[in-house]
Amino acid sequence: MSDQPVRADGAALRNGVLTYRDGLRHAKPDATVTMSKATLDRISLRQITLSDAVRTGEIKVEGDGRNLTELMGFITTFDPSFNIVTPIAKH
């Protein structure tokens, strides 16, 4: 995150599992992605698309950007206003 304290975090996708590593930087990453927390929030809330954020410079990608696009394609989308608690149905 470009607006957070400097640190290196890594993620790896293996066998269908995305593993996040706090404070760990891979020796040879396929891609390095830099963005602000606000940009990540806007993407999560579907206020901006990943491709638009890259195009406008809100996201900087070093390396093979196709890997980021492929990774984002694996992530499940959901309705952000889903009910966390639902009422008990009356019979």
UniProtKB/TrEMBL annotation:
Residues 12-87 form the Alkyl sulfatase C-terminal domain. SUPFAM superfamilies: SCP-like (SSF55718). GO terms for molecular function: linear primary-alkylsulfatase activity. InterPro entries: Alkyl_sulf_C, Bact_Alkyl/Aryl-Sulfatase, SCP2_sterol-bd_dom_sf. Pfam families: Alkyl_sulf_C (PF14864). One of its GO terms (biological process) is dodecyl sulfate metabolic process. This is Alkyl sulfatase C-terminal domain-containing protein. It comes from Cupriavidus necator.
